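Follow-up to my earlier ticket, as requested here are the two runs.
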Amino acid sequence: MSALLPPKPLATSARHTRPAKPAVNKTTPAAANAAAASFAALTAKLDYMSSLDVDNIRRAYRFADEAHLGQLRNSGEPYITHPIAVAQQCAEWKLDAQALMAALLHDAMEDCGVTKPELIERFGPSVAELVDGLTKLEKLEFNTREENQAESFRKMLLAMARDVRVILIKLADRTHNMRTLGDAPREKWARISRETLDIYVPIAHRLGLNTTYRELQELSFQHLHPWRYATLSKALLKARGRRRDVIKRVRAEVESAFASENIAVQISGREKTLYSIYRKMDEKHLSFAQVTDIYGFRVIVDRLNACYTAMGVLHQHYKPLPGKFKDYIAIPKINGYQSLHTTLVGPFGTNIEFQMRTEAMHVVAESGVAAHWLYKAKDPTSDASQRLGSQWLQSLLDIQHETRDAAEFWDHVKIDLFPDAVYVFTPKSQIMAMPRGATIVDFAYAIHSDIGHRAVAAKVNGEQVPLRSELHNGDVIEIITTDVASPNPGWLSFIRTGKARSKIRHHLKTMALVESQDLGEKMLSQSLRAEGIEHLPDDSAPNRLLWEKILRFSGNRSRADLLTDIGLGKRIASMVAKRIVVLLAEKGEKPDALLLSRERYTAHESVSQGSLVLDGSEGASVQFANCCKPIPGDGILGYLGRGEALVVHADDCAVAKRLQHRDSERFIAVDWSDEPVRLFETELLITVANGKGVLARVAAALATAEADITHVNMGQERAQDATELRFGIAVRDRAHLAIVLRNVKRTSSVLRVHRIRPGS
């Protein structure tokens, strides 16, 4: 939009004072004639609208014309010619009156100071919302151009998800700006062209707007690489002359073949775009002469079955190239595109692609989501193509719900903008299109968030496979779930889709906060016991005033926030507990002397709070230190970092001792529960006499002792007479570990075995 414009005087509305010396006097005959002629060209395209709609569009034109008074394009034309050109493109898509009004007004808020309330008053809330969705954000707090751009696109895409007319107007706007980019300063060409290729071209493709998609590609290529564009243009012109006779002959033969079969068809030639030729040459390291599929034909028939009949006629006439047949009718592309594709060997060995489709498929192929309005213009009762692209648009809202950061949102969306797809099946034979490289986890989240969260295993074509397995065309996928499962942070390293990534991150963040809140409640309860208070006051009405005073003291907004901050180490539980004791005393509630003495005499000597009992169910809010890997039975200490999880160390861990010396007030006493609910990891160093089957025997000994093997490391050096094996294992407690050690020691070829505790 305004990226292509020189600085312009601001005008708050048509009613406000104009600049003293406007650049163009709109009363001159030349300017008036130019504007009138431009609007006349627009009205000529509005034959599908009612007279009332045309009058409303004319009102919007007059308002925009006044608002842009004195503003010029880089070409020297009155600025109003740009909104009219954008509206003309929207009229070709047969968009409704509100969309055309928004197209005429799309720069009024950004460049003329017109406010949203003013647009609502004059043209209604729908038009104002469309214009607002198209308006870039101009906020001083953005630190970088990238941050500003990410926020602007986030706003535009979310407005698009709510109303797809936003992106159609935006694409029309970008198309006209690219057509006139030659008038802009040369230094802007590369940046604007690259932005168009990276963002608007994929969006146009994703929404099936193939005509716009191809034009934006060509214009971007022309301005990004002018010399290459000119060279390829000359080469294509020469090739077109050399191959004209071949193409003419093929067309005549094909028309004759269809006529002999009494099949009514419309045949049109199709030439590969310069940009697609350039991409093919660049990616496959080909010369121009080696690109053989420059030309093709589009065959339009009157009904779906005739597509397959037409293909049979062509295959009888010319030999098809093996592996070059694609049925996008049975399995449409993600953006709704449908056609049969086949590549045939024509005269003189020339490869020629044919596309067979119906008239309805052709409209969708060229106009994508805009086809909905094209259908409506022909048949107001039709709802054909209304859902084109709707799944992706809905996924934008889902991602936004999970992701509030603009840059992160844009990262997720960029992943989904390139629709190279694989087609897979659910066990009930439902076809699903997934991006190439997508995994089982992506598939699970595409079905439903709950399926993704609870996935533990999967079967592909009846065989069990890892969740990180990539999908391939034709796979039948069954997801196995369990109610106790939850997303694994490790999934983020291999998933492909933005939806899955945002859902997993959101779930992990939410769970971390919930677990931190639970931990904070436990810690505050323990600290209160150390102060002689048996129970933490609940959040009921009698305690509401008490909690209001505590929250004023701590600076938190809610009880849940305070408990979360305690769990994350941002607040010290003992300080909050002492404040609660003071407030309870004001109400007349005194500490229990017996509890106070018992807690103080049994409290851990080296820490400042009462003991917290751990059973392994605490989740991400409690981490067991990798430096010493404590297991039940070891003496332990808890270190509460600032804004981090509670980290549990063995009490003889050297790392913990250094931390305690430097930061003793952040340690709390922790104890093991009598009945831990999971296994805990530790490491063994096993020295063995090298020989056949020794690794298998050691693994069998560990399995017999019911220890889970988490990893094995045999080192990089070649095996000697005596070799060290490092096993990661999971055990219940120290008693279980003792059984494991005895079992391994009895194994033949084992010379020594001991537990590794590097931090102790």
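Run two:
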Amino acid sequence: MFKFLRKYNKWILAVGGTLLMIVFLIPQAIEGLAHSAGTARATRAMVVGADGSEQRITAGQWADVTSEFDLINRGGQRGSMIPAIGRLDGAPHWFLLTHEAEMAGLVGPPGSVQITQEMVNQLGVRVDVARRAMAKLDGVYRLLSLYQTAGEVSDHRLKEYARRILHQAEIEYFVVPASADASEYQPSNEELAAHLEEFGRVAPGEGEMGFGYRLPDRVKLEWLSVPAESVRQAIRDSDEMDNVSLRAHWMRQLRDPETTLPPIGDDPTIPQAVRDHMLEQLTNERLDAIARFANDQFRANRRGLSQRDGYFILPEDWSARKLSFEAVAEEIQSRFDVEAPEYRATGDRWLEFDELDELEGIGEATTDRFGTTLRDLYDLVTGAMEFGGSAIAQVQKGVTGPPLRTADGGVHLFRMVDVDASRAPHSVDEVRDQLVRDLRRRDHYQQLKGQLSGIEQTAQHDGMLSAAMDFDTYLQNVSVTLADFAELSRMMQTGEAIVPVSRAIPGIGVNREATEAIIERAMQLPAGAELQELSDDQRIFVLPVDDNLALLGVRIVRNEPLTRELYSVTTNTVKMMLLNEELGTERLRKEFSLDKLIERNQFRLYTPAGEEDVELIELDDLPGQVLPAE
């Protein structure tokens, strides 16, 4: 017996130890599976139907909702959402929109949606998630379209509307903008504070006279860069590419039937193509190793931290505990014998999102960590937890993001040092220069308006060029209309509400009021050759453009009224424009806003199971009570 035990003791220990481990772990595994199953079945949200019945949404179903929302969020241009109603307020907004579309029977079966494997690879999600999201999105578009086109209009009213909205006029014009430098007005601190109080919460360009001082989403960054060329040069200067290593590399590559390297001959000289091939291979391997090493260092630094919904719960002393980029840079330089990585930081400067792509090196870098879709710095930062979060690419302040790689293999690591979500300025000092400049421009604009009649008389009697030269400006020509066909085509393609958008006037931009004034004056004049018989007194006028704080001198050159042929092919589009104008896009957005949807569906959002202190979104954004999970 003892001989048997001595002979097979290793096998006995291996098998017996494995059996003991299985016996020990089975209860924990069963408990874990039960907990996961229970969590997936826990109530995450609730809606109430028209008949008073309650519909429960489980945590598992809600996870699908967040995946769909993330897909739709990434499907537009840099986070644009449902064009007809604007940007969605998180996963609850997406869920309630699709819920109403489903209740109306407007969402088709997911299997009917054509999704190619290439599209799935680009989107970076499972094909069933993509099909379900696309089917729901189509249902939402149908719902909004039905709401927009529910009204009816008379044929006479439709023709009169079309005659005005599709009229075109070619004009010669000049712009006299107000200038802060032309005003001696010095606003007091009290005046600046009052002006900020009035327009501080308004986005730039959207308030009266174009005023608006709401600060955009901003971020402060630090990042570490290992340029591919610095690694390439380090390898080039090392002993790694001696003749023995080069010849061995050459022989290995020749075993590949698709190699492009020349065959080995009698000449002992190693071709440059072999040197270049080996250098590129060693460079890529070294850069891959550096990226893995750096990522492992930061992961080790986060070990032991708790997570919630995929994000780390950072301790109060994290700023002191987190691994510094300088320390990692020293380790990389020492371990890989390369030039010290470049450390950069924005310091006190805030970066707006549009500036992220302009950062040298890292602005062009991407990562494939979150599926097959490449994500760049812009995608990661704009989807950070502090800016609404992402169900897939989870990034947060104070935590180093995934390594980013440039096309040549360069490695870039970044961390958000500070974030500042869009808000009104806290004080005048944050936007003092802009406030002073705008108030001085407004003062000069009032002076210009006082000269309007004189400017108009100069243009009528001495000519448009003379009036323009008095203000050191120049003449331009453009065709204006209240419904730009290029914009209408874009709206149809993107599924937006079809509304008239006036054609831009260079120097003024898209300005509905100014264009309406021009079209109204033009429609009072004859068309064709008869127009040329009128005097300049009848064709020249000057308009105040409040939104631009500018005067617009206009001479009507040609009139192009709506033709019967054009009306016949645009009748349906014109009808949609009229209905949408009377309905108003603001009303549409209000009816399908998160607040209205919550009210209509008596929506309640529960906290995740087992985490009663967690809220998915802020209470201010979600009216009603956020209840603990069942």
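The only thing I checked on run two: The two ends are 59 Å apart (CA to CA). Let me know what else you need.
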